[in-house]
Amino acid sequence: MDRFQEMKVLLAVTEAESFAGGAKLLGISPPSVTRAVAALEARLGTLLLARSTRSLRLTEAGQRYVEDCRRILLELEEAEELAAGGSVRPRGRLTVTAPVMFGELFLIPRIAQYLDTYPDVEINALLVDRVVNMMEEGIDVAVRIGHLPDSSLKALRVGQVRRVLCASPEYLARQPLPQHPADLLRHTIIAATGISPRVEWKFGAVDDPTMVRLRPRLTVTSNDAAIEAACAGLGICRLLSFQIADHLAAGRLKIVLSEYEEAPWPVHLVHRESKFGSSKVRNFIDLLANHLRADPHLN
Fold first, then answer.
1. Do 276 and 135 have their domain in common?
2. For the chain, how many helices (H) and strands (E)?
3. Which has the closest alpha carbon to 157: 285, 273, 282?
4. Could you give the CA distance from residue 219 to residue 190 in angstroms, rounded to a whole number?
5. Are 96 and 140 in contact (CB under 8 A)?
6. Structural domain of residue 14, as residue ranges?
7. In 87-216, which ranges are continuous DSSP H helix?
8. pTM of structure
9. Which stretch of DSSP H or E encloses residue 269?
10. What's the CA gap between 101 and 122, in Å, rounded?
């Protein structure tokens, strides 16, 4: 049995959650499936499936290998179709990640549109306010806000956002309007750890920044909670411009110290480009990039 067939056997067993079920999906005998998985594990020198009398589950190594198998087999199929002169319709699983609020506001509507257009694709959206390791967690496309480190990943710039200080009109009516970042020391500060993990905030140009070390009155792990606290008049918060755009338009929040803002942060779509390229990834990036570049809150 060749390597590609071994991969197909492993995927079938994983999908069916049993050797017998995998054999039924493939139309081969259960002993053949058992031998194929055993031979694969022996060749790799690692356990891919943890067996018990009641269950069958992937090991950590098995989970990574299964994701790679899905990608490799799909790319092989697409390469063959392209070589034969056919068109490739996106299909398979697509895993994407983005910060929570960005994903809710910009990513989910496009995912819904994409899934409606391509019914053979499944999407797993990981919305978290942390930098996800794309290789370790099997991510196909990631939204990155901020300057990118050097890497082998491909990046496409689709917009920019600002880090802004904001407070409610009610709070600003009770307190002297800050004229300089140092004035924040006399104000009530709300810290959102999703965007401001440190209580030392930087302002101004990269080559000559102003640093202010602050002691927040309220620290929250959710940007939504920070926005609610600011709208309620508790104090001044630092957030990304797109996160408060609706509140600014409605007059619930106002920006302060705009003249001391850092340069805007770029927004990129980052992806792992394969030799042939995956049609599902290419089409998703094209769809998302076109909408993000046209959005006034990101440009």
1. yes
2. 10, 14
3. 285
4. 6
5. yes
6. 3-83
7. 100-102, 108-117, 169-174
8. 0.72
9. strand 265-271
10. 22
